[in-house]
């Protein structure tokens, strides 16, 4: 009988036993990854190491958008194996995952072209690797100069260092160095035995994506604890996720306007974002939605008054945002700063494994709500939106289109919610996780796919918890976007992505 090469699971479904995940020889593991990723409808959503009893086990998860499945398989290294053939030269999207495994466990991926630290984790393998001796790429030439930006920035922004190599004003290369605020969140998920603390951890991974990360965590817990939730709660969670998407997209539109000195667009969008987050605060007491999503139930069940206020607010926001967006994306002075600026091609986005908005702005149909649906999205199909040009204009226009779509989704979901039986339990904190299981939960946050995975031991305790924010895969897109651009175009390119520093650093 031929060896089973992988287990096939669905997003947020019944978790397979750990023993059901095939353990492959590395040459087979290598070929399987390469074979999977020949199809652009597949991409790697997670690849990481788990140390157990003197053995490092590597787990790989490949999402297949053709059939909404996820292939899971593994490879084991003993303590004597520290060198593996890098998959990156064949499948560049694995570069960030191999770098992380190298940083955490000291595995050398032979042939990897960019074996540099990802986040300087406290449990990194080589403690001599510190931010101060980061090996920046350099080009020797009397005609070139370097420009450093950060880690301390002029605005209220997270810490990160950007090192430009320029010829005059033209950027030849940008290297992005992160890792200034590593918090050890994945380790805390294991150490904290209090389930409420884990919920608070999840919604603190990236403050602008509190609902997205909290939902990924809650789904994961529910699948491993066998907790069923009502359709009414699933609808409410989707509404909350779309409210988060609305608020950030409108806020980011304000930031884009600010960077091109269009003050009218900036102040209008800032005001509209405030209306959305105030509606979220009315619902749960927190403008960012903290406390709203919990495993098994909710402390803030939606009622008719809240639903009515949300509908009133988004109808007003939809009308007013539509008016200002029509101006933003038709004024020649703005279009000259948006169009053909920071262009990333579809091929580049596929090569680096871009996800979410970074992918969809390059014409790639990649949206977990559609391709691997979760919660009530499984019963409420939405329109997958893409823009083709891959420039600042595309990233701004995609926000514009998604705002309009999110308004439609929220209105449609509330209409269905009103017809549903509204039985929603209180959150479940005294759950018992199933032993020796592998669980995965992916959610389409406003930036893109959020992935939480967990492995439990024989007692049902969390043995490994892994988080992947979409920023981890998308930071390289920003570096590509500024190549051959004027260095003065960097701020607007940066704002057009609005990637997360803390979501990367964890």
Question: What can you tell me about this protein's structure?
Answer:
The protein is α+β, with helices and mostly antiparallel strands. The protein has two domains: 7-118, Beta Polymerase, domain 2 (2-Layer Sandwich); 208-469, Orthogonal Bundle (Cytochrome-c3 Hydrogenase, chain B). The protein is built from 16 helices and twelve strands. The chain has helices at residues 26-36, 95-105, 185-191, 195-202, 210-225, 231-259, 263-284, 304-328, 332-338, 346-352, 356-360, 368-371, 392-419, 471-481, 490-497, 501-505; strands at 7-10, 42-52, 55-64, 69-78, 83-85, 108-110, 145-149, 161-167, 170-177, 438-444, 449-456, 462-468. A hairpin with a 2-residue loop joins strand 2 and strand 3. Helix 6 (231-259) packs antiparallel against helix 13 (392-419). It starts with 6 loop residues before the first strand and ends with a helix.
Brief sketch in words of this structure:
The chain has 506 residues and is α+β, with helices and mostly antiparallel strands. 40% of the residues lie in helices and 16% in strands. It starts with 6 loop residues before the first strand and ends with a helix.
CATH superfamily of the largest domain: Cytochrome-c3 Hydrogenase, chain B
DSSP strand count: 12
What is the CATH topology descriptor of the largest domain? Cytochrome-c3 Hydrogenase, chain B
The CATH architecture of the largest domain? Orthogonal Bundle
Structural class: alpha+beta
The number of distinct helices, counting runs of at least 4 residues, comes to 16
Q: Give the N-terminus to C-terminus distance in angstroms.
A: 43 Å
Instruction: Please tell me the overall pLDDT.
Output: 94
How many distinct domains?
A: 2
Percent strand equals 15-25%
What can be said about the biggest beta sheet?
A: 4 strands, antiparallel
| Helix share bin | 40-55%
Low-confidence stretches: none
Shape: globular
What's the CATH first level of the largest domain? Mainly Alpha
Strands side by side in the biggest sheet: 1-4-3-2
Radius of gyration using CA atoms only:
22 Å
Would you list the SSEs in sequence order as H and E?
EHEEEEHEEEEHHHHHHHHHHHEEEHHH
């Amino acid at each position: 009988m031929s060896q089973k090469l992988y287990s096939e699971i669905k997003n947020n479904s019944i978790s397979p036993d750990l023993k059901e995940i095939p353990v492959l020889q590395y040459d087979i593991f290598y070929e399987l990854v390469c074979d999977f990723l020949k199809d652009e409808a597949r991409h790697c959503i997670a690849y990481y190491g788990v140390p157990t009893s003197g053995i490092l086990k590597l787990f790989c998860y490949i999402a297949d958008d053709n059939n909404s499945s996820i292939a899971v398989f593994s490879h084991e290294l003993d303590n004597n194996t520290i060198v593996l053939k890098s998959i990156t030269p064949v499948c560049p999207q694995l570069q960030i995952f191999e770098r992380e495994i190298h940083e955490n466990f000291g595995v050398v991926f032979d042939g990897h072209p960019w074996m540099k630290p990802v986040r300087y984790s406290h449990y990194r393998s080589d403690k001599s690797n510190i931010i101060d001796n980061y090996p920046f790429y350099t080009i020797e030439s009397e005609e070139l100069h370097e420009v450093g930006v950060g880690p301390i920035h002029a605005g209220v922004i997270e810490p990160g260092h950007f090192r430009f190599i320029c010829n005059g004003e033209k950027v030849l290369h940008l290297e992005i160095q992160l890792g200034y605020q590593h918090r050890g969140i994945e380790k805390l998920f294991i150490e904290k035995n209090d389930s409420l603390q884990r919920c608070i951890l999840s919604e603190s991974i990236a403050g602008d994506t509190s609902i997205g990360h909290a939902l990924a965590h809650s789904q994961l817990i529910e699948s491993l604890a066998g907790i069923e939730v009502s359709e009414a709660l699933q609808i409410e969670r989707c509404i909350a996720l779309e409210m988060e998407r609305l608020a950030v997209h409108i806020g980011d539109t304000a930031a884009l306007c600010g960077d091109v000195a269009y003050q009218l667009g900036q102040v209008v969008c800032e005001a509209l974002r405030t209306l959305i987050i105030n509606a979220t605060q009315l619902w749960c007491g927190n403008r960012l939605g903290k406390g709203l999503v919990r495993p098994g139930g909710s402390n803030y069940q939606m009622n008719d008054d809240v639903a009515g206020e949300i509908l009133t607010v988004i109808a007003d926001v939809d009308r007013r945002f539509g008016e200002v967006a029509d101006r933003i994306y038709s004024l020649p002075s703005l279009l000259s700063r948006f169009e053909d600026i920071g262009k990333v091609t579809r091929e580049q986005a596929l090569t680096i494994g871009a996800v979410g908005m970074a992918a969809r702005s390059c014409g790639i149909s990649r949206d977990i709500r559609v391709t691997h649906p979760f919660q009530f999205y499984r019963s409420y199909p939405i329109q997958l939106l893409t823009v083709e040009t891959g420039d600042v204009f595309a990233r701004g226009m995609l926000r514009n289109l998604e705002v309009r779509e999110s308004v439609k989704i929220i209105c449609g979901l509330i209409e269905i919610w009103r017809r549903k039986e509204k039985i929603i339990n209180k959150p479940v904190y005294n759950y018992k996780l199933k032993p020796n299981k592998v669980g995965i939960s992916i959610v389409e946050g406003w930036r893109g796919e959020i992935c939480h995975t967990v492995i439990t031991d024989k007692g049902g305790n969390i043995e490994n918890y892994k988080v992947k924010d979409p920023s981890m895969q998308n930071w390289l897109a920003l570096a590509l976007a500024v190549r051959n651009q004027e260095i003065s175009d960097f701020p607007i390119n940066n704002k057009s992505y609005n990637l997360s520093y803390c979501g990367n650093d964890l």
